[in-house]
Amino acid sequence: MPLLLEIKDLKTAFDTAQGRINAVDGVSLKINSGETLGIVGESGCGKTMLALSIMRLIPANGKIINGEILFSGKDLLKISAEEMRAKRGSEISMIFQEPMTSLNPVFRVGEQIAEAIRLHQNLPAKKAMELSVEQLHEVGIPDPQKRARDYPHNLSGGMRQRVMIAMAMSCNPQLLLADEPTTALDVTIQAQILDLISGLKQKKKMAVVLITHDLGVVAQATEKVAVMYAGKIVENSAVEKIFANPLHPYTQGLLESIPARCVDSMEKGDYLKTIPGSVPSLYNIAPGCRFYDRCSCADEECAKKEPPLTEIEPGHLVSCWKYSANKNN
Fold first, then answer.
1. pLDDT confidence of 100, banded at 50, 70, 90?
2. Per-residue CA distances from 280 to 60, 115, 231, 289, 317 (Å)
3. Domain 3-91+173-323 maps to which CATH number in 3.40.50.2000, 3.30.460.80, 3.40.50.300, 3.30.565.10?
4. N or C: which end of the chain has fewer CB within 10 A?
5. Is 14 helix (H, G, I), strand (E, B) or coil?
């Protein structure tokens, strides 16, 4: 499959009253056309900010200070703001984390989808509304003509998420960024939303970046996984390799914390495994590995120098001195 998106050494920084923080710190990733890449990690690790950086929608106090975002070979950081606006929604779309806050409460949902269609396809209002109803039908909303006249508060959480997907898909993007698309939904609805995204991906032949903290979602819906920790990618591989042979201690800790994986080996009185400590503050990043304070196999050298993201086997990259031949160099 041809390469669609390549991110090279991306750094997104924020200037705050306490100083500068790098929310995305030297991230490099690749995604091919038609692939689904999962980005997983704890809250605050930089997953959402990575997606917003791709869209060039970072908050006003933030800026991209380094790197390249190559989309179909063109660096999105070097095109004009007008060119980027044209790409958003048409070639690259994003499903935001909270559909209730992402949808405008004073406009009917059909009008909001139609606005995106008019903006990117330059169609008259009537035709745009017809396509809006078609999109609602495509994402599985029953009686789409009636639902198009509803306001967001009239819809359930699952229905609102389907509206967000309909809006994102309205102009047939090549790349879909889905930020926690199943948050706050019950398990049955989560499965339906994931199946919907997967079906649309196959039908439209697009690539998907799925951002989540849920490893169950990753296992169900992705082909490749990038694990983020404190603004960096610490492991990146095919989903089967990550689950069968996790290499980074943080990835191992995440997998060992899943109740379904632990319960069979637990005895009465045992506790579920957890990762000790907490995520380091991005204001005062110490030299060395960022997982050093929480890692059971760290040594003194790990505190001195940050490990590079190294390809340990074909397609399996990990940032850990345990697997590097250059630890003392």
1. confident
2. 24, 42, 10, 11, 22
3. 3.40.50.300
4. C
5. strand
**Nearest of 87, 95, 82 to residue 69 by alpha carbon:** 87
Q: Checking DSSP bridges between strand 3-16 and strand 19-32, what pairing results, if any?
A: antiparallel
Q: Where in the chain is the domain with CATH 3.40.50.300?
A: 3-91+173-323
Cα angle, residue 246 at apex, residues 9 and 244 outer, rounded to 5°: 130
What is the pTM for the complete model shown?
0.91
Nearest Cα neighbor of 86 from 38, 47, 121 is 121
Q: What does the alpha-carbon distance between residue 308 and residue 201 come to, in Å, rounded to a whole number?
A: 33
Q: Which residues pair with 236 in a beta bridge?
A: 226, 317
pLDDT reading at 231 higher than 80: yes
316 to 38, 252, 284, 319: CA distances (angstroms) = 14, 15, 30, 10
How far is it, in rounded angstroms, from Cα 275 to Cα 280?
Answer: 13
Q: Which 3 state secondary structure label does DSSP give 18? A: coil
Question: What's the CA gap between 10 and 288, in Å, rounded?
Answer: 19
Alpha helices (H) along the chain: 47-55, 81-87, 99-102, 109-121, 125-138, 144-147, 157-169, 187-204, 215-221, 239-244, 249-256, 259-262
CA distance 209 to 188: 22
Distance CA 54, CA 6 (A): 10
pLDDT band at 267 (very low <50, low <70, confident <90, very high): low
Task: Work out the pLDDT band at 277, boundaries 50, 70, 90.
Answer: confident
Cα distance between residue 291 and residue 288, in whole Å: 9
